[in-house]
Amino acid sequence: MTNEELARRLDTSDEWIRTRTGISRRHVVNPGVSTSELAVRAGQRALRSSGRPDADALVLATTTPDRPCPATAPEVASRLGLTGIAAFDVAAVCTGFVYALAAGTGLISSGIARRVLVIGADAFTTILDPQDRTTTAIFGDGAGAVVLRAGAPQEPGAIGPFDLGSDGDLADLVAVAAGGSRQRSSKGPTAEADHYFRMDGKAVFRQAVLRMAESSQRVLEQSGWRIEDVDRFVAHQANARILASVAARLELDERRLVRNIDRVGNTAAGSVPLALADAVADGFIRPGHRVLLSAFGGGLTWGSTVLQWPDCAPVY
Description:
Elements: H1 3-7, H2 14-21, H3 35-50, E1 57-61, H4 73-79, E2 86-90, H5 96-109, E3 115-122, H6 133-138, E4 142-149, E5 162-166, E6 174-176, H7 181-185, E7 197-199, H8 201-223, E8 232-235, H9 240-250, H10 261-264, H11 271-281, E9 290-297, E10 301-308
């Protein structure tokens, strides 16, 4: 969906959206398409890219599960032909994929699994107020996935260390008020707006820049890297101005910053893996590159990790 298409039904314009977000288009699921369908498609391609159709566990990062109960991951695993494996959801909004990477890495490090399929998927437009030009202009739907396998710490592709954090005191900055036990257990009426996603844009902007920059700095210190060692920085594609501000705060050359927000918008848990896939596909990330990942989302949550990119390519 292009900015021009949005402008035909909302009080907005291509220029207004581009100058504030850097987004020119985003993808929107067709009616009846759910998060699980996006996750299955991404999972199939990741398994195919890995050269093997199997995994011992599946971790799905999403804020838009098919249903409040049960988790969406077991159904995704079953549809991928992975019935019987461990499968669970991770809910950390736009930080979800980094949290899911940490969970998958932990499953392997503890010996519980040898191969873990990690998926970030969100049909985020399904929780947006269609008349809210701000959120509708920013968010899109999408999914990306990777396969982790057991290996040696010095191998290309080895992930870690991780820096993860949260601040629940600021939970209301990014929220859907209705639909959970808090709203359901109160007997009062619920406003229609409470069923839609809301965020305090200015406050979220400040927190996103601060948290991703600080988390990135901590994980670089843990890994023994300097900012000059980072070949590519893959940050959550929240907003073009946020990306530029984080890079400036880190004193990172913007030419090393991965960007695809102009083409896909903010895809929440799908953001980091989609940015990785696009950067690898167009040759911007190459084998041997030192890659820094960082994300920020509701909760508030944030997280970062590092890896040296292995010799592998995405499947579209």
